Inverse folding.
């Protein structure tokens, strides 16, 4: 077998048999030949005057019938590849340099097989050992060995044996990495140093150390590795477990075909370990952490992030830096809190960032759009920077200020009483803002009270700000004829009139679209006419929302932005909703109807035991009608992915064709960031978010406890609600 492993296995065994360097064993006459050369006499056959080996020839009777198939030594210059070699004429492969280093360090442990040269050929033509000859030739061309370097070879004169040598040349199988690991283990037990092993194998010392770390694996693990039941990366992961008995149990499961619980081992290794992938480390950096007295431990295999051995040093360095940067947020009457973990919402205050432009007039909408653009620009400026470098401090301060300005500008004015600053892997620092709840206009409170009387708690949305803009009706309603009419008669008359309008409206689809659009606009956007008696139509609708969760910008956030702009246009018109909707171009009216209808969807299911089968069936039909594909506008972000256990995240990488050997070794927050990045690169999102496939099955009961803890986040911090509004 022509590879580095073939010629360099078990250096400890080379002390038995022929000496290292592959010089042929002494035969009778060798000592006499050396003596003759030393006394100036003509040397005997097979020895040149300077004592070096002479190339055998066809006429040499000792060569014609070799006894016991002993190797013969040839000068390197007298060797060439036989033309009948099946790989004759092929260029050297990329493994020749490594083989050359191995031969230089360990010598030629396996002699070549040659035949005698014919007319115009070299004295010895290589039948088996072409790659070894190429490696030695490369060393000669580099000036690292001489042209007369002795090469041990078996000389075959029998045509049948020559043919067999040609066949064997092409049937060699490279040594399996498990065999290499076992061989290194034997070398270490023979007290060879890592440097000596590296020199013999032609490997870098680091690579030998990595393989040596695997030599202590349980024998079943190496057996599973050789059988293909474990990958080399999984074997390295298994080697990190200190208990060999546990190694054997897990390797036995893999050998039996029951799979390898990679993510469970990773979760166990990550428990209570702090790595350089921590969000705080992006802001502190290696220099700041070391300056605070922090120590780092690097992974031998280079597969896992560096371990930070001093969490207190990281927290102290991050807090000091965060406090210095957050001074831009200070203002009278405003508290600024610094916490490395994502904070829990303050129950006594109402967060900013949920209104998404709702309730703003045209001028305020322009201000909000400009503030959002400024925050996006500041965020993009931080993307590729070293945030631990002090040169980035002005940009971080700019982002924090722009972010707070955008949050406050997205809704009607109210004071900011609390700003919570926490760590972010993207921008170094992120913030949440809170203030006292805004006061609802009297009209909204009255409407909400009326609705509460009829629907209980269903009128909660009515307490959001309602429009107080004046309304001018195009066709004022005629006063009712109440004189001499009792209650029963009034009911009969209004009932009949209602039925008459039902028929008329049903016969005029265009007018029906106007009435429906106006009613939905009044209820969902203006919050006017709520409750019975608030309008001609009894349609009730509510804009979708999830308590404590902000809109997702590219999804429902974009729809809310459009409706906020329409509200500003309506307020500027001074018309009633019906008159304004009737005056819209048909295309705009249909677009607004689509926006209002879409915002009325509610398919959220709070528990797996509350699956709404009928609603799901309708959602699938609607999705098919409009060709729904969430990936056209949005891919899973960290807020959405953080709610998933690691097993689901790894499955997502497989589904999008982005499996990564490093993924199994990532902490939860590292894996979340990796999945978000790969999804954005590929424009991928789970099919069930587009109602194109069924939801994944609920977790098995045996995994529920572990996965529930996993979903809480890498540091035990509850997953933030922002951006996680998709419950499907």
């Amino acid at each position: 077998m022509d590879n580095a492993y073939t010629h360099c296995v078990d250096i400890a065994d080379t002390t038995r048999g022929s000496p290292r360097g592959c010089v042929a064993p002494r035969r009778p006459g060798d000592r006499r030949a050396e003596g003759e050369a030393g006394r100036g006499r003509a040397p005997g056959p097979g020895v040149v005057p300077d004592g070096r080996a002479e190339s055998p020839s066809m006429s040499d009777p000792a060569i014609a019938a070799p006894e016991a198939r002993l190797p013969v030594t040839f000068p390197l210059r007298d060797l060439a590849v036989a033309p009948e070699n099946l790989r004759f004429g092929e260029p050297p492969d990329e493994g020749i340099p490594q083989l050359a280093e191995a031969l230089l360090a360990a010598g030629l442990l396996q002699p070549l097989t040659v035949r005698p040269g014919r007319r115009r050929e070299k004295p010895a033509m290589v039948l088996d050992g072409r790659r070894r000859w190429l490696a030695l030739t490369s060393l000669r061309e580099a000036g690292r060995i001489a042209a007369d370097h002795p090469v041990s070879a078996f000389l075959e004169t029998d045509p049948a044996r020559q043919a067999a040598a040609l066949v064997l040349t092409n049937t060699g199988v490279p040594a399996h990495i498990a065999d290499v690991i076992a061989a290194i283990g034997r070398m270490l037990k023979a007290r060879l140093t890592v440097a000596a092993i590296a020199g013999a194998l032609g490997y870098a010392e680091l690579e030998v150390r990595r393989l040596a770390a695997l030599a202590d694996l349980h024998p079943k693990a190496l057996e599973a590795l050789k059988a293909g039941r474990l990958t080399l990366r999984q074997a390295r992961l298994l080697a990190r477990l200190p208990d060999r008995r546990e190694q054997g149990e897990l390797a036995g499961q893999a050998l039996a075909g029951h799979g390898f619980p990679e993510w469970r081992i990773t979760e166990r290794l990550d428990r209570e370990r702090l790595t350089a992938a921590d969000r705080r480390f992006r802001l502190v950096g290696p220099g700041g952490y070391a300056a605070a007295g922090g120590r780092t431990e690097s992974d031998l295999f280079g597969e896992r992030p560096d371990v930070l051995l001093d969490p207190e040093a990281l927290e102290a360095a991050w807090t000091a830096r965060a406090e210095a940067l957050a001074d831009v947020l200070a203002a009278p009457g405003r508290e600024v809190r610094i916490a490395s973990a994502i904070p829990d919402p303050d129950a006594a205050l109402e967060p900013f960032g949920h209104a998404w432009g709702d309730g703003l007039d045209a001028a305020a909408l322009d201000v909000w759009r400009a503030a959002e653009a400024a925050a996006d620009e500041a965020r993009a400026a931080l993307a590729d920077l070293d945030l631990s470098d002090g040169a980035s401090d002005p940009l971080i301060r700019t982002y924090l200020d722009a972010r707070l300005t955008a949050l406050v500008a997205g809704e009607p004015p109210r004071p900011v009483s609390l700003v919570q600053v926490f760590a972010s892997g993207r921008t170094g620092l992120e913030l949440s803002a809170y203030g006292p709840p805004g006061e609802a206009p009297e009209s909204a409170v009255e409407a909400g009270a009326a609705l509460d009387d009829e629907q209980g708690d269903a009128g909660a949305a009515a307490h959001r700000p309602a429009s107080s803009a004046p309304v001018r009706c195009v066709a004022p309603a005629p006063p009712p004829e109440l004189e001499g009419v009792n209650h029963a008669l009034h009911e009969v008359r209004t009932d009949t009139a209602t039925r008459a309008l039902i028929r008329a409206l049903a016969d005029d689809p265009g007018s029906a679209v106007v009435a429906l659009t106006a009613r939905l606009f009044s209820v969902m956007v203006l919050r006017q006419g709520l409750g019975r008696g608030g309008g001609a139509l009894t349609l009730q609708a509510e804009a979708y929302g999830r308590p404590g969760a902000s809109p997702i910008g590219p999804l429902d956030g974009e729809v809310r932005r459009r409706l906020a702009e329409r509200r500003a246009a309506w307020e500027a018109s001074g018309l009633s909703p019906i008159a304004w909707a009737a005056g819209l171009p048909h295309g705009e009216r249909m677009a607004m109807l689509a926006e209002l209808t879409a915002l009325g969807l509610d398919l959220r299911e709070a528990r797996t035991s509350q699956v709404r089968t009928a609603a799901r069936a309708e959602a699938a039909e609607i999705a098919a009608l409009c060709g729904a594909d969430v990936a056209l506008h949005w891919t899973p972000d960290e807020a959405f992915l953080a709610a998933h256990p690691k097993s689901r995240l790894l499955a997502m990488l497989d589904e999008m064709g982005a499996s990564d050997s490093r993924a199994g070794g990532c902490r939860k927050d590292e894996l979340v960031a990796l999945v978000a990045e790969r999804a954005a690169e590929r424009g991928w999102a789970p099919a069930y978010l587009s109602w194109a496939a069924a939801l994944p099955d609920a977790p098995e009961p045996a995994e529920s406890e572990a996965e529930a803890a996993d979903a809480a986040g890498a540091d035990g911090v509850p997953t933030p609600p922002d951006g996680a509004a998709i419950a499907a």
